[in-house]
Write a structure and sequence with these properties.
CATH class of the largest domain: Alpha Beta
Shape: globular
CATH architecture of the largest domain: 3-Layer(aba) Sandwich
Structural class: alpha/beta
Distance between the termini: 27 Å
CATH superfamily of the largest domain: Type I PLP-dependent aspartate aminotransferase-like (Major domain)
CATH topology of the largest domain: Aspartate Aminotransferase, domain 2
Largest sheet: 7 strands, mixed
Number of strands: 12
Strand content: 5-15%
Radius of gyration: 21 Å
Bound molecules: pyridoxal-5'-phosphate
Strand order of the largest sheet: 2-8-7-6-5-3-4
């Protein structure tokens, strides 16, 4: 089996599984319990929080969540509803993950906010001139992802932050789910960011929202005082502690895995470019962990299924959309070509993939395209 769908999820590192078993045996008390076992659980839980925050210098706090979906929802809705008296304008982009886009849609449809969805340039990034045109002193939140999950396009958050900082009432959030542990996050320039453990070889069901100390949020879940009153419910003790190790290992491996994946992807790009049935959608300066291409005359679902039958796992869109969307929103926003966006395929490599796998993939893909043509 060849796994080329690492943007959807990654294989859990074995050392994390060992740690999970050990933690489960040694600590089972509720960290909020007022006895020695509870205190001990609380101590190592808070230590994990500090270890994560230590990677990000500055006045940040951390809310553990069930993943990036929850972290995105918590920040976007939490800020909009908490600060609604300051202004009712919000800005995001058409290329965001559904956990961002649909949070904004809900604020627009149910709570009367005015949302601007910024278009994308042909390289998949946000046009800063469009941001300049939309932002004003009624804008309380801008959310722009760092690396796009469908094509790997990178937004220059440092440059965009210069525009946003001219409006001191406005917070700048970024979904860094596809960049954390892969490329450096310019976190110094943003007010908050969200990510998931399972995209960086951690456990599914755990993630974090990291935000500036000064920011208040309206909680999505009402209940006890857990997570500084922002996210009620007994802490997901083991997954959250594992997140600290997951992130440390990802950051330690970042440069090595980037070099490895970049070499594989530039080889793969060059090989795909030889086939005139294929057009590459990912911009040349994309984050190499995602490579998106379209098939000129064949539906991507046919090819994705044929590859799967041959033991090669790739994606025809972002995994969350597969059943719903018949095209890639991001590819459409970049090229305004419906057929191209319907026929797109996403390859997402990771540190475990090899050159031999890439060669095998190219051979199988070429055979599939030949047989479909016939
Ligand atoms: C950019 C981006 N944001 C958010 C998410 C949601 O992550 P999760 O499903 O782990 O909550 C994903 C997952 O595909 C993603 O790629």
């Amino acid at each position: 089996m060849i796994y080329f769908d690492n943007a959807a999820t990654t294989k859990t590192r074995p050392e994390l599984i060992d740690l999970a078993v050990r933690l489960n045996n040694e600590y089972f008390a509720n960290p909020s319990s007022n006895h020695a076992l509870g205190h001990e659980a609380k101590r190592i839980y808070e230590q994990a929080r500090k270890q994560i925050l230590a990677h990000f210098n500055g006045d940040f706090k951390l809310v553990f969540t069930s993943g990036a979906t929850e972290a995105n929802n918590l920040f976007i809705k939490g800020v909009a509803l908490k600060y609604k008296n300051r202004g009712k304008k919000l800005i995001t982009t058409v290329g965001e993950h559904p956990s961002v886009l649909n949070a904004f849609k809900q604020l627009e449809e149910e709570f009367g906010f005015h949302v601007t969805y910024l278009p994308l340039l042909e390289d998949g990034s946000v046009d800063p001139n469009e941001l300049i045109k939309s932002i004003d002193d009624q804008t309380i939140l801008v959310s722009i992802m760092h690396v796009n999950n469908e094509v790997g396009a990178i937004n220059d958050l440092a440059m965009l932050s210069k525009i946003i900082k001219a409006f001191p009432k406005c917070f700048f959030h970024s979904d860094v789910t596809q960049s954390i542990g892969k490329i450096k996050i310019p976190y110094q320039f943003i007010d908050a960011f969200s990510f998931s453990a399972h995209k960086i070889h951690g456990f599914k069901g755990s993630g974090a929202l990291i935000l500036r100390e000064k920011i208040d949020l309206l909680p999505l879940l009402s209940g006890g005082s857990h997570e500084c009153h922002v996210r009620a419910g007994t802490e997901a003790f083991i997954p959250n502690i594992l997140l600290a190790k997951t992130l440390r290992l990802a950051l330690e491996n970042e440069e090595k895995s980037y070099r490895h994946v970049e070499a594989l992807v530039s080889y793969l790009r060059a090989k795909l470019a030889l086939n005139n049935e294929i057009i590459i959608n990912s911009p040349v300066n994309a984050c190499p962990f995602v490579l998106n291409f379209s098939l000129v005359n064949i539906k991507s679902s046919i090819v994705v299924e044929a590859l799967s039958n041959a033991g090669i796992m790739v994606s025809s869109n972002s995994a969350c959309d597969d059943k719903l969307a018949s095209h890639s929103e991001t590819v459409y926003a970049m090229y305004h070509d419906l057929k191209r966006s319907q026929n797109s395929v996403r390859i997402s490599l990771g540190e475990e993939n090899t050159l031999a796998e890439v060669d095998h993939f190219i051979e199988v893909l070429n055979n599939i395209l030949e047989s479909v043509k016939k």
